GTP-binding protein
Amino acid sequence: MTITNHMPVTILTGFLGSGKTTLINHLLNHNHNEKIMIIENEFGPINIDGGLLKHDTNIDIIEMTNGCICCSVQGELITALHQLHQKRLAGEINFDRLIIETTGLADPAPILQTFFIDDVIRETIQLDAVITTVDCEHISTHLKNHRVAASQIGFADRIILTKTDRVKTADKLSVIARINAINNKAMIIEANHGQIAKTQWLDLHTFDLNDELTISKGFFTVDMSKQLVTKFTPFTSKLHSYQSYDDNIFSYLFEATELDLKKIGSFIEKLIEQYGNDMLRYKGVLAIKNQSQKLIIQGVHKVVGFDYGSAWDNITPKESKFVVISRKLPFEELKQQFLATIAD
Ligand SMILES: Nc1nc2c(ncn2[C@@H]2O[C@H](COP(=O)(O)OP(=O)(O)OP(=O)(O)O)[C@@H](O)[C@H]2O)c(=O)[nH]1
C-alpha cells in the first residue's frame, strides 16, 4: 500500500468485556504481513487494555485515556488522526491499517461522525466498517441496563457474537433473534475467543457509496474447529417462541419502484431534519426516473452522503430500497410519505 491510498479504518465497538481485545489479539497473533495501528480508548485514567494487548513489531498503540472518545475526547481523536497522517506523509511512521477500539461504554456515533465532518480525515482515511462484539452470555443484561448496548448493535455493519461457548443453543438463538430485531442489516458471525479470519471483519468496504445493500436473512457461523473459511453456511433461526423486547432501536425498510428525484430529495431532507438524531445508520439504493444510474445514499444521524453508483442493468428490476436503523419512527406515516415520492 502506498501513502497516496486512503488509510482503511475499522471501528471496533461492543460493550465492556464483550471480547474486543481478545479479537484484536487473535488478529495480531495471526497477522504477519500488515502493520497495524491501533487507537485504544479506555474509560478512566488507566488503560488496562493497552497492557493486555500483545505488543510486537507489527503493532503501534496510541492510548487515549482522557475520558471516553464519544464525548470529551472527540477533539483528541481528530488530533491523533491528523498527527498520524502527518507522520505518515513525512515517512516517520508507516502502517497499513488503523483500528479504533472504543471503550465499552461508548456510543459510536460521534466517532463515526468524525470521519465525515473533518476534511483532512475525509480525504485521507477510508472508513471501512463498524464492528460490534456482542457477549452472548451477558447481552440481555447489558440491553436491559445500558442504552448504549443497543446503540452499539444498531451502528454495526457486522456483529461478532462472542462467548457462545458459555450458553445453550436455544439462548444463543434468542440472542440472535433479538440482535436481528435491532439491526437486520448487519451480518452476525460467531467467534470463539476471537478466533475469526480477518477477512470476516476487515476490508468490508461498507462505507463506500456502492450499490450493495444487504439485509441479513439469517446469520452465518464460522466453526473454528474446522478450517477458516470464507464461505459460510447460512443459518436461519426458526424461533417460534421469540419474545419481544423493547430495545427501542429497530430496522426499517422502505421499498418502492422508480422515484421522483425532487420528491425523494425533499422527503429525505425532512426525514433527517426531523428524525436525524434518532437515525443511527441508513443506506439506500434508489431508482430515479429518467436516470440510468443508481442513486446511493448513506448517512449517520444528520450527516448524509449521496452519489450516483453503477447503471441499472436490463435484468434487475428498477426498485428503490432504503434501510434505516433508528430509534422508534412513525413508520406507517413515513412509509406513505416515501411511497408518495414514486414518479408519475
Ligand atoms: N468463554 C469465552 N470467553 C471469552 C470469549 N471472548 C472473550 N472472552 C473472555 O472475556 C473476557 C473479556 O474479554 P476482552 O477481550 O478483554 O473484552 P473487551 O471487550 O476488550 O473488554 P473491555 O475493554 O473491558 O470493554 C476475557 O477474559 C476474555 O478471555 C469467548 O468467545 N468465550
The chain has two domains: 7-235, 249-339. Residues 249-339 form a domain with the Hypothetical Protein Yjia; Chain: A;domain 2 fold (CATH 3.30.1220.10).
